Amino acid sequence: MASVFFSDEQDAEPVDAQALAALARAVLDEESVPPDVEVAIILVDVAAMTELNGRFMGHEGPTDVLSFPIDELGVEPGRWPDGASSGPARRSVPDDEVPFVLGDIVLCPSVARAQAERHSLPLEAELSMLTVHGLLHLLGMDHANPADAAVMFEAQHAHLTRLGIPSPGPAAWM
Predict the structure, then answer these.
(1) Roughly how many angstroms between the first and final C-alpha of the chain, as a whole number?
(2) What is the full per-residue pLDDT of the chain (174 aa) written as tens digits?
(3) What is the per-residue burial (b if ≥16 Cβ within 10 Å, else e) of 10-49?
(4) How many beta carbons lie within 10 A of that of residue 51, not counting itself?
(5) What are the structural domain ranges in the chain?
(6) How many CB atoms lie within 10 A of CB 107?
(7) In CATH, what is the architecture of 3-81+97-173?
(8) What is the dihedral of CA 109, 131, 160, 138, to 10 degrees?
(9) Closest alpha carbon to 45 in 7, 16, 19
């Protein structure tokens, strides 16, 4: 089963870490992701999300979720940044001991709260939707064009529906 690490670095909204971690594991399992994969879910406040959104996306203000892929499925895990080095910084680790880190999902519960209210959903449902959304990005899905968006938002809705989480449906996100 996938390992999901959780870090709550905000105090504006109480969040059920175990529920989001269980949701992430269920989605990764449904997507047939190998069980030795690691994912981190990090909750941040508005100031931190604003800084991350500006720094990595070039956008002003906070956003609800950002995904930071690390290892790519289908690519050999355990790549070293300086693979040609034979110096002391290079460790020799058997391939079966190198973790496969799919990536990090950063959520801003304060932004999610405002969105949940606009969507007339509980905060937990909004955070669940954002977690699934972030995972699908880590798995290579995107919504940059209408065709890709249709596929991603349909997958997002299918996961939420399967898990009994209220979802406004794919059309609401397009």
Answers:
(1) 32
(2) 899 999 999 999 999 999 999 999 999 999 999 988 999 999 999 999 999 999 999 999 999 999 999 987 654 544 444 444 444 454 554 556 567 899 999 999 999 999 999 989 999 999 999 999 999 999 999 999 999 999 999 999 999 999 999 887 776 676
(3) beebebeeeebbebbbbbbeebebeeebbbbbbbbbbebb
(4) 12
(5) 3-81+97-173
(6) 27
(7) 3-Layer(aba) Sandwich (3.40)
(8) 160
(9) 7
State the Cα–Cα distance between residues 17 and 173, nearest whole angstrom: 25
Question: Do the beta carbons of residue 64 and residue 110 sit within 8 Å?
Answer: no
Tokens of 3: 């390992």
Q: What's the pTM?
A: 0.85
